[in-house]
Specification:
It is built from seven helices and no strands. The radius of gyration is 40 Å and the shape is rod-shaped. It has two domains: about 70 residues; about 180 residues, no CATH class.
Amino acid sequence: MMNRFLGKRGAAVLLVVLLVSMPATAGVADILSLLNTIVSTLRGDIGSVLSEIQTIRNAERSLQQELVWPLNAINQAKASVVQVRSQFSVLAGRIQSLQVASATLPNPKQFESLLRSGQSTSASALQVSFNRLYGSVPAPTDASLPQRNLADVDDAMAAGSLKTAVISDQASQQMLGVADQLERQAGTASPGSAPLLSAQAAVAGLENQAYLQKMLAAQLREDAARLAHQNALLKQNAQANRMLRNGVQQMLTRP
């Protein structure tokens, strides 16, 4: 439309220039002859060039619609996305609304609520609830130093893993929101925007992998701490056996 407007405007300007440049003595026949020359020129050489340009544009449009961005395939993909979303969004909502809390006593119930909150701001309250539920480190008069050390480090590793789980739940909710947004965009995306959506999905996938790596690292730390605890118990048993053996030898060597 713009090209046609510019073409008409250029022809009008050319006509005005020619009319102005004509001698004042020119008659109607001369003007009609000039107009016929302009019209024949526009229909001839210029018209053929414009026709070829329009043909090339039509071929380019057909190429884009049929091969590069096939409209039928794009519409089918959009319809498929909308259908899949309508099928699974209801099921996903039901899964998220399931009540899985099982604790009934006050302290366990509060601890489970904080643990399933999915809010990183509840980390300090989670530590207090953890100490209230599982108890504090024994006093020096109630346990030996090795026992107190094991109790302290085990509590630290357990509380740290639980806090990481809460933060991971929060991150999972955020990733679900990103996935839902990408699904909505895919259902209404315009032709040619698929690479942009793919890039967004790739970035979201990388973030999800980073969160999974953090959870895996927390699990590995917990397993390592459990092995270290078992080894510490073996070391304490070996030390107790050595002390018992020394005591028995001293009793046997007494006169």
